[in-house]
Amino acid sequence: MKKILQFTFIFVSILSFSQAQEIIKERGNLSNPKGNIYKSLEVIDQREDKKIGEMPFGDNKEMKEIVFPTTINSYLSQWYTDSNHKGGKHEMVLILKRLKTTLGETVGKETEADVDFSAQTFLKEGDNYRFLYKKDTVYSFKNKNISDVVVKNIPVIIAMFMKKTYTMKPTENVVTMNDLTDYELYVRNNSQAYKNEQLKDGVYLNNTAFLNQTPEIGNYILEKNDKGNVLRAIKEENGKKDKISANEMFAYVENGKAYKKTYSGFLELNKNEKGFYIVSNRGYILPVRNSAVFVSVGGGAGGGMYGGVAIGLVGIFERSLRQNKERKGEMFEIYIDPLTGEYDFSNE
User: Fold this and answer.
1) What is the dihedral of CA 45, 52, 111, 330, to 10 degrees?
2) The pLDDT value given to residue 238
3) Cα 241 to chain center, whole Å?
């Protein structure tokens, strides 16, 4: 009996370790078209669930676990090095918060699936770190070969994230490794906009200025139309006028009350224990986007081409377009990401 139990245990163990896997492969490259300033890339995996997901592959719809060929750090570090042969003087650190796939419903011959992705990047100088970029979103796909589409798009999503990081300037604020454990909490605890009860009146051109409560210098007067909508801010000094259009503003504060610029105008910016938010919906604050999306992640001067093949998100569709119709007229709290100033739709 003991031998039978031992054999059963060994057999089950073999099955668990021999589970079919679908390996994520590189697509395109991670080269910086403006010249590499980072000599290396290090990945810190902070995912609570290290498993990316399982999906059905092939004609037999065999369930396979989606995996990287090595550790996520080794995979991305090597991919970065292969794409940027001339090393720079700085180091980059990527913190991976989430990478999870989920299958959705099947309509006709096409199946839906989501890739939940969240990551942050920092420039590293010795023992200090400076924030670069953050992406926290869900990419939705629809295709008759949905599993293949998802696996092919995971490296594209990463490449898109890296390409955007290259365009970002590091913040002036310097933090230590301990602060990277929960950098968003660190920002909340150390930003004047979150700490202070009263906001400073003035015009703010970006999220960083708003967080630091450093409005544009000078006595800017808000110019409004007959409906009370802000058109521009004007400062007059030494006989010269300096104008800031509404489209250039991130937000403005008047009589201690903040208003956030959106696609359809300024909306009141409120604050509670969760952070700053506006009350609106996608259809009001965002422009309509096409359901067909293409993003180039290829290297070289031509961009968009890698080995003669155009690289981009395949099979993606805008779930928000459907949500716009479903949410028409319905308003809800939309929070502002403290790190980027972007809208946070994670609660949808």
Assistant:
1) -40
2) 81
3) 38
